[in-house]
Amino acid sequence: MTDELPGDLYDYESLLSEDERKELLGIRRFLHEEVRPRVNQSWETATFPMDLIPRFAEEGMVGRSYDLEHRPRASRLFTGFISLEASRVDPSMATFLGVHNGLSMGSIVLLGSDEQRARWVPDMVSLQRIGAFALTEPHGGSDVAQGLETTCRRDGDEWVIDGAKRWIGNGTFADVVVVFARDVADDQVKTLVVEKGTPGFTATKMEGKYALRTVQNADIVFEDCRVPAENKLAEGNSFRDVNRVLKLTRGGVAWNAVGCQMGAFEAAIAYAKDRRQFGRQIAGFQLIQDLLARMAGNVTASLGMAVRVSQLQEEGVFRDEQAALAKAFVTGRARETVALARELFGGNGILLENDVVRYFADAEALYSYEGTREINSLIVGRALTGVSAFV
């Protein structure tokens, strides 16, 4: 591992402060020295290396987007680079952190009361409690805003949840699950927190998944699942509130997609220098250099967009269509970049030991989750034309 970021051809990392660059280098070394050696085995066996979880907190990779009593919020650019570095090594690890950091903890920070934040966030920052985010359902993906089937109802001092969720990252071992359910009283989406061990809550690991295999996605069933009234997040009262969280985290997915394609790009460069055919390095073949140049263009354009997303978030002027465009564009470029990298490897590209097939598969998941390309395109199109094309 080098201290530099080889895929950053325009040196966007130089936009960080000196202190941020020093801290990022420490995170980079941790990921490459302690996490990278574990990722292929974890991916192949579809198991999560639970013993690494405390190390993410120790390295300062958790809760950096939020103001905390003991630590001020880091810049959006710095937290973006953390996401990039995690995904550059393993998109599964970046997804674990994104679900916990952004979707789950972000929901509590954005939608919770002071008391609720004090109750859950400190333990989530230290990773003593793991978070999950339960929005997607077996029959509802892109249409979940209108077709949410999971229901909740107020019963005295409790909320009762019934229904099912699917594709819930971290769901098999999460301690805190943020759940979205339609209130039978007013037909509005409420946000509730279900804690591990609550009766009526069952999480089952999804099997046969061939992308982000290390991520423990769960099918979750709620059967007369009762949570205290104080577990309903104070500001989680409609799907508009859910969108506040998704707007924030779509920018994070863009950073993850940059890291995914950067990891594949760097693996391709290393392989091109090492692999010999016809008596010389394939790095000296024109067609190989063309593939690398195309990948470099995708990586650079994607990183530039992700950087601008973080700058707009920092300025407090980040809009829905900007989040949607970044998610759709960067994950699309990631798909192309990992395919070009796999092409460069030839038959060796399908061997897990060469890493690129892992990025190739994982890019497909990044392309689809937190809003498909089509849905994000409609968000952008609505902003461009002033006309909604949603059904």
Automatic annotation (TrEMBL):
Cofactor: FAD
Domain Acyl-CoA oxidase/dehydrogenase middle, chain residue ranges per copy: 132-225
GO molecular function: acyl-CoA dehydrogenase activity; flavin adenine dinucleotide binding
Keywords: FAD, Flavoprotein, Oxidoreductase
Domain of life the protein comes from: Bacteria
Acyl-CoA dehydrogenase/oxidase N-terminal domain ranges (all copies): 24-126
Pfam families recorded: Acyl-CoA_dh_1 (PF00441), Acyl-CoA_dh_M (PF02770), Acyl-CoA_dh_N (PF02771)
Domain Acyl-CoA dehydrogenase/oxidase C-terminal: start-end pairs: 240-384
GO biological process, one term: fatty acid beta-oxidation
Secretion signal, residue range per the UniProt entry: none
Similarity-based family: Belongs to the acyl-CoA dehydrogenase family.
Identification of the protein by name: Glutaryl-CoA dehydrogenase
